[in-house]
Amino acid sequence: MSATETILSLDHLSVRLPRGADRAHALADVSLQIASNEILCVVGESGSGKSMMANAIMRLLPNEVKIDGGNMMFEGRDLCAASAADMREVRGAGIAMIFQEPMTALNPLRTIGDQIAEMFSIHTDLSKAEISARVLALLADVRIPDPRVAAKAYPHELSGGQRQRAMIAMALALDPKLLIADEPTTALDVTTQAQILKLIRDLQQRRRTAVMFITHDFGVVAEIADRVVVMQHGVIVEQGTAADVLHRPQHAYTKQLIAAVPPLKAPPPRALAADNILTITDVSKTYRTGGFLGRGARVTPAVKDVSLSLPRGATLGIVGESGSGKSTLARCIVRLIDPDAGSIVLEGRDWAKLSREQVRRETRHIQMVFQDPFASLNPRRKAAELVAQGPIVHGTPRAQAIADAKELFALVGLDPSSGDRYPHEFSGGQRQRIGLARALALKPDVLVADEPVSALDVSVQAQVLKLLAELRQRLGLSIVFITHDLRVAAQICDLVAVMKDGAVVEHGLAAEVFGNPQHPYTQALLDSIPGGEFTREHETAAV
Amino acid sequence: MRILSLAGRRLAASLPTLVLILIGVFLLLQFAPGDTVDAMMAQMGGGDAATARELRKFYGLDLSIPAQLGNYLWRLVRLDLGFSSIYGKPVASVILERLPPTILLMTASLSFAFFFGLVFGVIAARGVNRWPDTLISTLGLIFYATPSFWFGLMAIVVFSVYLQWLPPGGFEDIGTVRTGIWRVFDIASHLVLPTLTLGLIFLAIYLRIMRASMLEVLNLDYVRTARAKGLDETRVVTRHVLRNALLPMVTLIGLQAGTMLGGSVVVESVFSLPGLGRLAYESVVQRDLNTLLGIVFVSALLVITVNFAVDLIYARLDPRIAAEG
Amino acid sequence: MDAVKRYFRSPAAVAGLLLLLVVIAMAISAGWFYPRDPLALAGRPLIWPFSNPRFLLGTDNSGRDIAAQIFYGARISLLIGGVATAIAILIGILVGAFAGYYGGWVDNLLMRITEAFQTLPNFVLLLVLVAVFGSTLTTVTIAVGVVSWPAPARLTRAEFLSLRNREFVQAGRTLGMKNLQLIFGEILPNALPPVIVYASVVMAVAILLESALAFLRLSDPNVASWGNLIGLGRDVLRVQWYVSAIPGIAILVTVLAVSLVGQGLNDALNPRLKSR
Questions:
Q1: Which pTM was predicted?
Q2: How many whole angstroms separate alpha carbon C257 and alpha carbon C255?
Q3: What is the pLDDT, as a whole number, of residue C274?
Q4: Residues A334, C178: C-beta atoms closer than 8 Å
Q5: A96 to each of A133, A180, A211, how far by Cα in Å?
Q6: Using CA of residue B289, residue B295, residue B299, residue B300, what is the dihedral sign?
């Protein structure tokens, strides 16, 4: 590498939180440097302080949070001591930032072109014509299809990936020395994520910008990082080159994070039962929205003629990106949504044809675990009550149901006496365990898990997946596992079905689908996994 | 054009609402003790049963209720609102005469309340939790709690009785006949106190909503993006916050249209303005149910019209609406 | 309970609560301070306040004690405000819950009706109701309640619309709960807080509506209400303006107190960043 200059250096930076927060400092004694023409990845779980650091550098901290030590040197100036006017010059022109949610990060009432042009009108004296030309050039640079149309479009008229490209165009408009990217791909689909990562790397190399890329995903780190900084609880626990940190991690936390990244190699296949407990045949669901007096309605086929089967005691994974129809299918299976056509045969009965009242009575046979640990538990009920609700509705006396609930708590690894607490007193991972216990309370034959670990931190994910595998073994559960993350599916599923636009494009044994994908979409999906090679090769404690 | 068709659709959807209101109120009025004929006879100073029967037959009041309802709706389509017993004129012409002062009053109050609500709401939000905010919010709360008719009375005491700056009531000076610009000034001076009175409560409401809306928007992500681009605070507010924060305010105009019309009943009574509101009061007191029904119809029409205008403005401001349509 | 602690941290909320307690105290103690009928003649008409120790707040056009009417008036305002609000909230919650939960034609029908009530100016509807049913205390209270239910209904419906697709409700359905159980056992307890807070707004408006009616001599003339007194004072506004001024201040204080308590409740139940 050629000689590089240090663009930004943080020296013993500390950021204080207001009284009542869970710790005294958001950042404690943080020191790091970013050189030009390199991508520095800042990795950490939620609450590690990584976003706080980005906000501190831009001096965009909330009012109650203050910098109380250290300095930040940028272009010979200490940003900690810079005046408001000075900071306004630096923002956008010297240091630019892109955010996680492109939908909310753009003003919904102004066109894309308008918002990009604003960068120029704030910091330069260019004429309107020149600015429009530059805006179009930028949009072409970030490879947005049809830049002229995009410039006149409003944010809601573009897709998530296109909005993020527009944000990148806006950030790079004035060729800043440093680009801070705060989890820019976390809210995007896997395939879109791969494209955006590639775009950022290309642009970085072409313009020789320094990039600080914040993420929680070690796969992303493997994909694009030159150097890595690992943060935990506001402190840097390890930093070094990518090769060093990924392959020779020193700190226990780093090792833990890397170990928690599920590898893409499926575990050796287990023997599967011969008979199917659940058979789905030609299930379809179409949504009709809008329309006035029956005309002009928007027709969206959410699920198109899906046929799958689940052998007894096995785990079937349904993988797809957002909009693939996997969640709709899951809800059709449990009859939260009524399918338009097709049959869902469980233990000889066709679920799709049962009446509402029959479904309500038979619902004990098939239960669901939900995605959001915060929204899936009624905040006003105690934990033990939540688990006991199902049996109580079906006739079990209350005392008995609560006693059973406490046993289930022990089964899922929670303290039985914590049944008297309310959901907000538990952590995200613990709440998912409560959700699991609730689903198991009715002793179902089939468990449908709708993205049960997607909202959890990486280290907690691994624990919950391990629990699922144990329960599967112990109780002989048959599981339908919905996820968008192929790596998670590889760990726990015997069979995998890949869905796109409502239809199943490929299905089979997990080892086969991952080892030898046939359909181009599956191949694209596997290729898009960030840090693919790293993920494929690293060993982890076998599930 | 999409905006027009969207608003047009909403307008068409409010037609059943209008019909529902009319049928509902019509049926309600059937329960009233005494009807139009009784009121007329009271005006005439009494009469015998035979005359009453004749009159009832003449006005179709002896038909069954569904038939009467049908008659009424049919006449309504032809904009025939019936006959007013107290004024001895068709209801439609009475209402038409009384409409201008009410519309003038409402427009003035709405403009006053909206404009100052916006300005003070923005000031309060910019200086949130410091003294400008506390002062404005406290005043807003007090205005909200003030009964409008009481404020009107007190305003008359202060400005008309003691200071003698403004007239205590009426629409214009009956004594002298003025024309042109002098007439405008005269009417304006008569409308100052009523506008202030009617506008006060709505000022408080708009103020509170604007402040809340501003604070809400100031916490949104795209404001953070604007700051990250290096925009100074004033431009952040004018270019990114204001238009977005205005949306709930615009919606509120539509929602409050009915309340404002209701408020004008009281204000017109306090200031003796010859408007629609006072007409409503008079028809209740004098049991002129035809006129009351006519006023119900016109009020509903007014509210629907205001909502239509609001829909147009909102769709113009927010490009997302046209997309969802 | 942190909500209670949060409530008491706001000086405005505490002030509102104190004012409200004063008004309630006035209402309860009216019988002790002024044991005679407040509408009975007590002295010479139009005595100025603070000029005669027997009539602290003076007397009105007919010679009735203003202070007595203020105390008894508190009963009327609180009574009407409370009962009308209860009626409005009850109807509103039922309509909003069923409309928001079931959707489809139930929602359409209920919303049309709600819209009808909202398109018609509420005071005009109040006038119609009074014209039809008369002006006794009972009918006025019910009328005010009937005129005020649309807004709580809309609020409840909005809450139900957002809550009915929450995962804990879906979980309840997969567990086999029936619709009514879901509506009243699972969703309603979570939807109630904003509606309860809104009840303070409804109460404030109810008190103002009734006093406006009383001012126009369309409410019950046989009770000592603040609005009645203001209406009475209009006749002597030029000189003895205090007859109208004093009850108006009473209304202002009461409505202010109710609003402050409502705001305090809102901030206590929905803790957000201070900048809000």
A1: 0.85
A2: 5
A3: 40
A4: no
A5: 21, 6, 10
A6: positive
